[in-house]
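Run log, item B.
One chain of 146 residues. Sequence copied directly from the ordering sheet:
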Amino acid sequence: MAKNQLDDRDQKILSILSADARTTISELARNISLSPTAVRQRIARLERDGVIEGYTIRTARLETETAIKAVVMLTLTGAFCSKIKAAFGHLPEIRKFWSTTGELDATMILQVPTIERLQEVTEQFSAHELVKRVQTHVIIATHIDR
């Protein structure tokens, strides 16, 4: 289902669930002026069509107390993100990895237990023959997390 096929009520359901995935069907129904059955059917359709891919739990308190998050950006000698993925995809510290356009070729979110481990991982990136430049930015605060 394309995003432009979602009506206002679908968009409202997604917005509410994005803010709090534990919102009950009854609460959703009240917020969008539909019956609980109609809301349940809409959610089932959104799940079936892949608009809602899943629900998750975040342990924000534990993550912020025990981990350092960083954005790492790589400039490569060519369009070799697949080779970088093959070389480093096994590292559990890599939480997200994107190919990007523009000056940077790849962007990653890393989550490491210590600053020393962050340095070790970024040094591994720097030592790779396809990596021209590594930029690392430690995340110090989260202001919006949807």
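Observations after the first pass:
- The domain at 3-48 is CATH 1.10.10.10 (Arc Repressor Mutant, subunit A).
- Strands lie at 68-76, 94-99, 106-112, 131-138.
Flagged for discussion on Thursday.
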